[in-house]
Write a structure and sequence with these properties.
By secondary structure, the chain is of the alpha/beta class. The protein has 8 helices and 15 strands. The longest helix has 24 residues.
Length: about 325
């Protein structure tokens, strides 16, 4: 089939790579406009655009996918189906009606669970042990259309959102090709989603990364994993701002454990860095001070001693 591909971030790149190697023909790419990135805030192309240009594919970057001029250009391509992977915009009915076989979307959760912009992050934050990918038919509602296929996978105990995203992007690319093959042969049997089972995964804000020490240690650890690579889990030790990159919830008792959440229980390069939480103690394994590089807790404590009793905020 002739396929129009829509995607923006690095997560979508494996899907496009697999599509270009499949028996389908990519007739065009739609991606978000270039956005300022980095300290210099220089506009940079999205990862999908970079791959598309390297393959000499037509690229479209509308500010609004409902723009009549954009829709006219897309219609000329003669695409039979649109394949959408993390494009970042809800597509209007006028767009969806351009394709004989409609539009399909690859989503990084087992819909209807975790509809929204950050399904990978929230599945880890909420302590899920299983996730997967879903390919479904697009309609005008958010992650709402009938499901064509799903593939499940366990979430590894130490896996963070960055690692899980990498794994799901590869699995999802294969699922997308499988779904397109089914559509081409008329073998799909889409199943409506169960609305009563729907949960939501809203886009993360920087404030979501601020550690709430009154939460149980196990929940804080899940949030640390789910906040990688952005916005990162953060806290303050006096005037020092710290990103907590990895940690472990401690089940055994730590001598001298106080009752105030956020209190430094133990801080020794040899014994470790332990913080009191609302339930249990969190052992910090890796962190990154503001303006510094990622390092182990032991390396940090050698250069930045913390006294037991200090309360992190």
């Amino acid at each position: 089939m002739k396929i129009l591909f829509l995607g923006t971030p690095a997560f979508a790149v494996p899907s496009l790579e697999k599509l270009l190697k499949s028996g389908h023909k990519v007739v065009g790419i739609v991606t978000q406009p270039d956005r300022p990135r980095g300290r210099c805030r220089t506009p940079q192309p999205p990862p999908v655009k970079e791959l598309a240009l390297s393959k000499s594919l037509p690229v479209f970057q509308p500010e609004r996918p409902s723009d009549p001029a954009f829709l006219s250009e897309i219609k000329k391509l003669g695409a039979e189906c649109a394949a959408v992977v993390a494009y970042g915009r809800i597509l209007p009915k006028e767009f969806l009606n351009l394709f004989r076989h409609g539009a399909i979307n690859l989503h990084a959760s087992l819909l209807p669970k975790y509809r929204g912009a950050a399904p990978i992050q929230w599945s880890i934050i909420r302590g899920e042990q299983e996730t997967g990918v879903t390919v479904f038919e697009l309609d005008e509602q958010l992650d709402h259309g009938p499901v064509i296929l799903q593939q499940k996978t366990p979430i590894k105990p130490d896996e963070d959102a960055a690692g899980l995203a990498t794994r799901l992007s590869e699995t999802g690319g294969l699922a997308l090709i499988e779904a397109l093959d089914l559509i081409e042969t008329g073998m799909t049997s889409p199943v409506p989603q169960e609305e009563a089972e729907a949960t939501h995964a809203p886009i993360l804000a920087k404030e979501d990364g601020i550690i709430r020490w009154e939460l149980p240690a196990a929940e804080i650890r899940n949030r640390i994993r789910g906040m990688q690579p952005w916005p990162s889990a953060t806290t303050s030790a006096g005037e020092k701002s710290l990103k907590i990159l990895s940690a472990t919830a401690v089940e055994h008792a730590v001598p001298g454990t106080p009752s105030v959440p956020g209190t430094v229980v133990l801080a020794s390069p040899h014994e470790g860095l332990f913080i009191q939480t609302g339930k249990g103690v969190l052992r910090i394994e890796r962190l990154q001070p503001s303006g510094g590089n990622p390092m182990s807790a032991a390396e940090f404590l050698r250069g930045h001693p913390l006294l037991p009793g200090l309360i992190l905020t």
